[in-house]
Design a protein that fits this description.
Shape: globular
Strand content: over 45%
Order of helices and strands: HEEEEEE
């Protein structure tokens, strides 16, 4: 069961580029109602104290958790 994680533990995680640059953080995990699979995450970036931030959908399959960075690396 080490491969399982609760959606609320993913929310708030940092998202990094492959070269280690912090891009933003995960705001929401979007799950397909029928299959129950996580399909994509909504990443927020920019702004200040939650104001003026933009949102971008990231396909779940493009994210990989990196223990060293303590967040997800997106490969797009």
């Amino acid at each position: 069961m080490n491969d399982l994680i609760a959606a609320d533990e993913v929310t708030g995680s940092d998202v990094f580029s492959p070269d280690g640059e912090k891009l933003g953080r995960i705001e929401k995990v979007m799950i397909d109602r029928v299959s129950g699979k996580a399909l994509y995450d909504i990443m927020s970036f920019g702004g200040f104290l939650g104001f003026g931030s933009a949102h971008y959908p990231l396909p779940w399959a493009k994210l990989k958790y990196d223990d060293r960075m303590g967040g997800y690396v997106v490969n797009i």
